[in-house]
């Protein structure tokens, strides 16, 4: 029997080097978020600043006559409010078959019931074509959303448009302005958007940085979405574990 076996090489006292963790590929991964929380529309939140407008639109859909013009700057939440108010009106007894939805000039649902009263919900209306739009839905109770910056020139200045005041040159058309959210409401909005993706304000952004975002957003949720996307992207590029001012 051959006893001249080759001895195994001596073991080194050092453990093998640890595997290097791969770098995060996106700010969602870096900040532990399951998705991008600031993309797309969120569910409607009945903040106090928008509750009166929401209730007014629901009442108009259920019992109103003529056209109610929902006015607000881009990103303020007109489309989300319109969808939520329509669903609330349906739950309160408005037959879904009495609703005609029009968005960006395109009719997405066309049902003409035999009942004399039907409802038109118009989103992103072009103010230059309000006359044509009203003539096509004059038999309906209508709610029409329009961007404040696109409003027709003959309307009174924005500061002279309290809720429900009819315009001078548009008889039968009532204006309803959707105001900006308060700073505390905006903070709650950002917190909720982050929460839907598994994040929190306290973990991801310092108070000073959050205050700056709130100031620049000026109460407009759509602007806050863009700002938060920008600061999270910048933090990812710099490798910041937390967003700071």
What does this structure look like?
The chain is an alpha/beta fold and 245 residues long. Helix content is 36%, strand content 12%. Strands 3-2-4-5-1-6 form a 6-stranded mixed sheet, with helices on one face. It is elongated and about 90 Å long. The N and C termini lie far apart (77 Å). Residues 151-169 have low confidence and may be disordered.
Q: Which outline best applies?
A: elongated
Radius of gyration: 27 Å
The amount of beta strand, in percent, is: 5-15%
Largest sheet: 6 strands, mixed
Number of strands: 6
Instruction: Give the % helix.
Output: 25-40%
What series of H and E elements makes up the topology?
A: HHEHEEEHEEHHHH
Query: DSSP helix count?
Result: 8
Strand order of the largest sheet: 3-2-4-5-1-6
Average pLDDT rating: 78
Gap between N and C termini, in Å? 77 Å
Unreliable segments (pLDDT under 50, ≥5 consecutive)? 151-169
* Protein structure class: alpha/beta
Considering the chains and any ligands shown, give keywords for the structure:
245 residues; alpha/beta
List the helices and strands and how they pair.
Blueprint: H1 27-30, H2 48-63, E1 67-72, H3 78-91, E2 99-103, E3 106-107, E4 119-123, H4 130-136, E5 141-147, E6 173-177, H5 183-195, H6 201-204, H7 207-217, H8 221-238
Helix pairs in contact: 2-3, 7-8
């Amino acid at each position: 029997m051959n006893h001249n076996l080759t001895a195994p090489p001596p073991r080194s006292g050092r453990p093998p080097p640890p595997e290097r963790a791969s770098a995060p590929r996106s700010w969602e991964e870096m900040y532990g978020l399951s998705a991008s929380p600031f993309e797309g529309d969120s569910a409607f939140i009945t903040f106090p600043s928008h509750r009166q407008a929401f209730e007014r639109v629901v009442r108009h859909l259920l019992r109103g006559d003529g056209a109610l013009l929902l006015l607000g700057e881009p990103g303020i939440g007109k489309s989300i409010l319109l969808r939520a108010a329509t669903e609330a009106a349906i739950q309160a007894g408005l037959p879904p078959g009495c609703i005609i939805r029009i968005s960006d000039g395109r009719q997405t649902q066309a049902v003409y019931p035999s009942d004399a009263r039907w409802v038109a919900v118009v989103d992103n209306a072009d103010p230059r074509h309000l006359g044509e739009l009203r003539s096509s839905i004059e038999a309906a109770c209508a709610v029409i959303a329009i961007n404040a910056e696109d409003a027709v020139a003959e309307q009174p200045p924005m500061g002279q448009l309290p809720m429900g005041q009819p315009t001078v040159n548009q008889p039968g058309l009532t204006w309803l302005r959707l105001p900006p959210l308060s700073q505390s409401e905006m903070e709650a909005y950002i917190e909720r958007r982050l929460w839907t993706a598994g994040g929190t304000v306290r973990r991801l952004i310092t108070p000073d940085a959050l205050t700056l975002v709130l100031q620049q957003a000026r109460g407009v949720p759509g602007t806050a979405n863009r700002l938060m996307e920008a600061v999270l992207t910048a933090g990812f590029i710099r490798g910041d574990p937390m967003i700071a001012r």
